[in-house]
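Mods, move this if it's the wrong board.
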Amino acid sequence: MAAWVKQIKYTFPVLLDPEGKVSATYAPPGVQPDLARDQVPIASNLIIDRDGKVCFYSLLDSVHFDAKLLGLIARLDQLLAAK
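Not the wrong board. Structure tokens:
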């Protein structure tokens, strides 16, 4: 993951949350699947501003991965441009 983040040239911290503790803290009610963490075949992406407010939340899955990833990138670009 560190190599990918470096390749993409992100200039912000990227948190890996393999147990899902952070995601569960910030996820809106009802979006986390009722499965054991090791059975969940999706990733969650959050953009949290400096005040701790969730600006973006998405669950990536294999069916909609590309479209949702593009949405994440677009929202991140939008937030960075609004500095």
